[in-house]
Amino acid sequence: MPKRIVVLISGSGSNLQAIIDATQSGRIDGEVVAVLSNKAGVFGLERAANANIPTEVLDHKAFDSRESFDAAMMELIDSYNPDLVVLAGFMRILTPEFVRHYEGKMLNIHPSLLPKYKGLNTHQRALDAGDQEHGCTVHFVTEELDGGPSLVQGRVSIELDDTSDSLQQKVHVREHQIYPLAVEWICAERVSWSPEGLLFDGQPAPAEGIQFQP
User: Fold this and answer.
1) Could you say which of 28, 41, 118, 188 has the lowest number of CB atoms within 10 Å?
2) Are 198 and 210 in contact (CB under 8 A)?
3) Has 110 been annotated as catalytic?
4) pLDDT at 172
5) Residues 127, 186: contact at Cβ < 8 Å?
6) How many other C-beta atoms can be found within 10 angstroms of the C-beta atom of residue 146?
Protein backbone atom coordinates (compact mmCIF):
# COMPACT_ATOMS: atom_id res chain seq x y z
CA MET A 1 0.00 0.00 0.00
CA PRO A 2 1.70 3.26 -1.09
CA LYS A 3 2.35 5.67 1.77
CA ARG A 4 0.47 8.96 1.88
CA ILE A 5 2.73 12.02 2.00
CA VAL A 6 1.78 15.62 2.82
CA VAL A 7 4.43 18.26 2.02
CA LEU A 8 4.56 21.68 3.70
CA ILE A 9 6.20 24.56 1.83
CA SER A 10 6.64 28.33 1.99
CA GLY A 11 8.52 29.01 -1.25
CA SER A 12 9.74 27.69 -4.57
CA GLY A 13 9.54 24.02 -3.61
CA SER A 14 12.68 22.62 -5.24
CA ASN A 15 12.89 19.80 -2.67
CA LEU A 16 9.17 19.20 -3.21
CA GLN A 17 9.93 18.76 -6.93
CA ALA A 18 12.67 16.23 -6.21
CA ILE A 19 10.22 14.20 -4.09
CA ILE A 20 7.41 14.47 -6.68
CA ASP A 21 9.82 13.25 -9.39
CA ALA A 22 10.85 10.27 -7.27
CA THR A 23 7.22 9.29 -6.57
CA GLN A 24 6.25 9.63 -10.23
CA SER A 25 9.18 7.49 -11.38
CA GLY A 26 8.11 4.75 -8.95
CA ARG A 27 11.30 5.05 -6.92
CA ILE A 28 9.29 6.08 -3.85
CA ASP A 29 6.47 3.71 -2.94
CA GLY A 30 4.30 6.62 -1.92
CA GLU A 31 2.16 9.44 -3.20
CA VAL A 32 2.18 13.15 -2.41
CA VAL A 33 -1.51 13.53 -1.56
CA ALA A 34 -1.39 17.26 -0.73
CA VAL A 35 0.91 20.28 -0.67
CA LEU A 36 0.20 22.91 1.95
CA SER A 37 1.69 26.41 1.94
CA ASN A 38 1.43 29.23 4.46
CA LYS A 39 1.89 31.70 1.58
CA ALA A 40 -0.24 32.12 -1.53
CA GLY A 41 1.32 32.50 -4.96
CA VAL A 42 4.58 30.65 -4.29
CA PHE A 43 6.09 28.57 -7.09
CA GLY A 44 5.89 25.35 -5.08
CA LEU A 45 2.09 25.46 -5.40
CA GLU A 46 2.51 25.64 -9.17
CA ARG A 47 4.79 22.60 -9.10
CA ALA A 48 2.11 20.68 -7.19
CA ALA A 49 -0.67 21.80 -9.54
CA ASN A 50 1.43 20.74 -12.54
CA ALA A 51 1.65 17.26 -11.00
CA ASN A 52 -2.13 17.20 -10.30
CA ILE A 53 -1.56 17.24 -6.55
CA PRO A 54 -4.19 19.00 -4.40
CA THR A 55 -2.92 22.25 -2.85
CA GLU A 56 -3.95 24.10 0.27
CA VAL A 57 -3.05 27.63 1.38
CA LEU A 58 -3.37 28.52 5.03
CA ASP A 59 -2.20 32.09 5.67
CA HIS A 60 -0.63 32.30 9.12
CA LYS A 61 -1.34 36.05 9.17
CA ALA A 62 -5.07 35.28 9.33
CA PHE A 63 -4.62 33.71 12.77
CA ASP A 64 -4.18 35.52 16.05
CA SER A 65 -1.65 33.06 17.50
CA ARG A 66 0.84 30.42 16.53
CA GLU A 67 -1.26 27.89 18.43
CA SER A 68 -4.47 28.64 16.51
CA PHE A 69 -2.62 28.49 13.18
CA ASP A 70 -0.99 25.16 14.03
CA ALA A 71 -4.33 23.73 15.22
CA ALA A 72 -5.96 24.67 11.91
CA MET A 73 -2.99 23.23 10.03
CA MET A 74 -3.22 19.94 11.95
CA GLU A 75 -6.89 19.64 11.09
CA LEU A 76 -6.16 20.26 7.41
CA ILE A 77 -3.21 17.86 7.27
CA ASP A 78 -5.13 15.13 9.12
CA SER A 79 -7.98 15.37 6.61
CA TYR A 80 -5.50 13.81 4.13
CA ASN A 81 -4.65 10.97 6.55
CA PRO A 82 -0.88 11.11 5.94
CA ASP A 83 1.68 8.46 6.81
CA LEU A 84 4.45 11.04 6.50
CA VAL A 85 4.63 14.84 6.79
CA VAL A 86 7.57 16.45 4.97
CA LEU A 87 8.77 19.98 5.69
CA ALA A 88 10.31 21.32 2.47
CA GLY A 89 11.28 24.93 3.08
CA PHE A 90 8.40 25.53 5.46
CA MET A 91 9.43 28.74 7.20
CA ARG A 92 7.48 28.53 10.43
CA ILE A 93 8.55 27.58 13.94
CA LEU A 94 6.15 24.83 14.97
CA THR A 95 4.41 24.62 18.35
CA PRO A 96 5.22 21.70 20.67
CA GLU A 97 1.65 20.41 20.29
CA PHE A 98 2.03 20.24 16.51
CA VAL A 99 5.39 18.50 16.73
CA ARG A 100 4.15 15.94 19.27
CA HIS A 101 1.09 15.22 17.13
CA TYR A 102 3.33 14.08 14.22
CA GLU A 103 6.13 12.60 16.29
CA GLY A 104 7.96 9.88 14.41
CA LYS A 105 6.37 10.75 11.07
CA MET A 106 7.55 14.29 10.31
CA LEU A 107 10.79 15.02 8.44
CA ASN A 108 12.80 18.19 7.90
CA ILE A 109 15.97 18.96 5.95
CA HIS A 110 18.54 21.32 7.44
CA PRO A 111 21.44 22.89 5.51
CA SER A 112 24.28 21.76 7.75
CA LEU A 113 25.88 18.58 9.02
CA LEU A 114 23.90 18.41 12.26
CA PRO A 115 24.54 18.74 15.15
CA LYS A 116 26.72 21.52 13.73
CA TYR A 117 25.11 24.88 12.91
CA LYS A 118 21.53 24.61 14.04
CA GLY A 119 19.44 27.61 13.08
CA LEU A 120 20.19 30.14 10.34
CA ASN A 121 23.11 31.32 8.15
CA THR A 122 24.67 27.88 8.12
CA HIS A 123 26.76 28.33 4.96
CA GLN A 124 28.48 31.48 6.19
CA ARG A 125 29.04 29.93 9.61
CA ALA A 126 30.78 26.92 8.03
CA LEU A 127 33.01 29.27 6.01
CA ASP A 128 33.78 31.46 9.04
CA ALA A 129 34.78 28.36 11.02
CA GLY A 130 37.25 27.31 8.32
CA ASP A 131 35.49 23.97 7.82
CA GLN A 132 36.67 21.73 4.99
CA GLU A 133 33.25 20.22 4.41
CA HIS A 134 29.62 21.20 4.80
CA GLY A 135 26.32 19.65 3.77
CA CYS A 136 22.76 18.90 4.77
CA THR A 137 20.89 16.55 7.08
CA VAL A 138 17.43 14.96 6.86
CA HIS A 139 16.14 14.50 10.38
CA PHE A 140 12.94 13.67 12.23
CA VAL A 141 11.33 16.69 13.85
CA THR A 142 11.22 16.93 17.62
CA GLU A 143 10.57 19.85 19.95
CA GLU A 144 14.27 20.71 19.95
CA LEU A 145 14.99 23.02 17.00
CA ASP A 146 16.97 21.09 14.35
CA GLY A 147 17.53 18.47 17.05
CA GLY A 148 15.58 15.32 16.14
CA PRO A 149 17.24 12.01 15.19
CA SER A 150 19.23 12.31 11.95
CA LEU A 151 18.44 9.87 9.14
CA VAL A 152 20.82 10.78 6.30
CA GLN A 153 23.54 13.35 5.59
CA GLY A 154 24.97 14.59 2.30
CA ARG A 155 28.42 16.18 2.34
CA VAL A 156 30.14 18.67 0.05
CA SER A 157 33.73 19.90 0.03
CA ILE A 158 34.44 23.54 0.80
CA GLU A 159 36.91 25.01 -1.68
CA LEU A 160 39.08 28.07 -1.04
CA ASP A 161 37.05 30.21 -3.44
CA ASP A 162 33.65 29.17 -2.10
CA THR A 163 31.24 31.87 -0.98
CA SER A 164 28.05 31.54 1.00
CA ASP A 165 26.12 31.53 -2.31
CA SER A 166 28.29 28.95 -4.08
CA LEU A 167 28.17 26.73 -1.01
CA GLN A 168 24.39 27.04 -0.87
CA GLN A 169 24.17 25.89 -4.50
CA LYS A 170 26.34 22.85 -3.80
CA VAL A 171 24.27 21.96 -0.75
CA HIS A 172 21.03 22.30 -2.75
CA VAL A 173 22.29 19.61 -5.15
CA ARG A 174 22.82 17.28 -2.18
CA GLU A 175 19.41 18.18 -0.69
CA HIS A 176 17.69 17.10 -3.90
CA GLN A 177 19.52 13.76 -3.66
CA ILE A 178 19.09 12.90 0.01
CA TYR A 179 15.54 14.12 0.70
CA PRO A 180 13.89 11.75 -1.83
CA LEU A 181 16.21 9.00 -0.56
CA ALA A 182 15.02 9.50 3.03
CA VAL A 183 11.38 9.45 1.93
CA GLU A 184 12.05 6.34 -0.17
CA TRP A 185 13.53 4.50 2.84
CA ILE A 186 10.60 5.44 5.10
CA CYS A 187 8.01 4.43 2.50
CA ALA A 188 9.82 1.10 2.09
CA GLU A 189 9.59 0.66 5.89
CA ARG A 190 13.36 0.41 6.27
CA VAL A 191 13.36 3.01 9.07
CA SER A 192 11.95 2.65 12.59
CA TRP A 193 11.71 5.72 14.79
CA SER A 194 12.09 5.95 18.53
CA PRO A 195 13.03 8.88 20.77
CA GLU A 196 16.29 7.03 21.58
CA GLY A 197 17.33 6.96 17.94
CA LEU A 198 16.60 5.33 14.60
CA LEU A 199 16.80 1.77 13.39
CA PHE A 200 17.72 1.25 9.73
CA ASP A 201 17.15 -2.24 8.34
CA GLY A 202 16.81 -3.38 11.96
CA GLN A 203 20.19 -1.97 13.08
CA PRO A 204 20.82 1.23 15.06
CA ALA A 205 21.56 4.08 12.65
CA PRO A 206 24.62 6.24 13.35
CA ALA A 207 23.83 9.27 15.53
CA GLU A 208 24.76 11.67 12.72
CA GLY A 209 22.71 9.69 10.18
CA ILE A 210 23.65 7.47 7.26
CA GLN A 211 26.26 9.05 5.02
CA PHE A 212 25.09 9.48 1.42
CA GLN A 213 27.62 8.36 -1.20
CA PRO A 214 27.02 10.22 -4.48
Assistant:
1) 41
2) no
3) yes
4) 97
5) no
6) 20
